[in-house]
Specification:
mainly alpha, 2 strands
């Protein structure tokens, strides 16, 4: 058998040497990769709390800020507040202005309540982000005991 022009074995004695070499390389590489994998795993386990309460918390806050901004855009709450005194459908008589004011006031109240629900939901998600690792450690501790 040849490999790149080099004869690997020519007789019976060299076959066993080749097998020993192949087995040594296989186990040696397996051990080396196993050590590397375990080292990376330990680094990840010890780095996780640091990431969770620094960069992960920052990413969570950015996500929640964007979530609230998008909810406000979908509700158009600021548009309704800004146009509360503008008559609807271009009716500028006093009846049209009066009806438009109360309709818009009702819309602003309802949309504000929905926005408060979204704010409370976001605050709850933020608290869950802070508490979750502690809760997980507590549950692991209870299972060990």
């Amino acid at each position: 058998m040849f490999l790149h022009g080099i004869r690997l074995y020519s007789g019976r004695g060299q076959r066993s040497l080749l097998l020993v070499f192949i087995l040594f390389m296989f186990t040696h590489n397996t051990a080396m990769y196993g050590i590397k994998i375990l080292t990376e795993l330990m680094k990840d386990i010890f780095y996780f709390p640091l990431w969770w309460y620094t960069r992960g918390l920052k990413n969570c806050l950015i996500f929640l800020k964007n979530f609230i901004v998008n909810r406000e855009k979908s509700l158009a709450l600021l548009v309704w507040i800004k146009n509360i005194h503008v008559p609807m459908y271009g009716q500028s008589d006093w009846q049209g202005r009066l009806i438009s004011f109360f309709i818009r006031l009702f819309q602003v109240i309802i949309r504000s309540l929905v926005m408060i629900v979204w704010l409370l939901f976001s605050f709850f998600v933020f608290l869950l982000w802070l508490i979750f690792p502690l809760f997980a450690l507590y549950q692991i501790f209870l299972q060990i005991i």
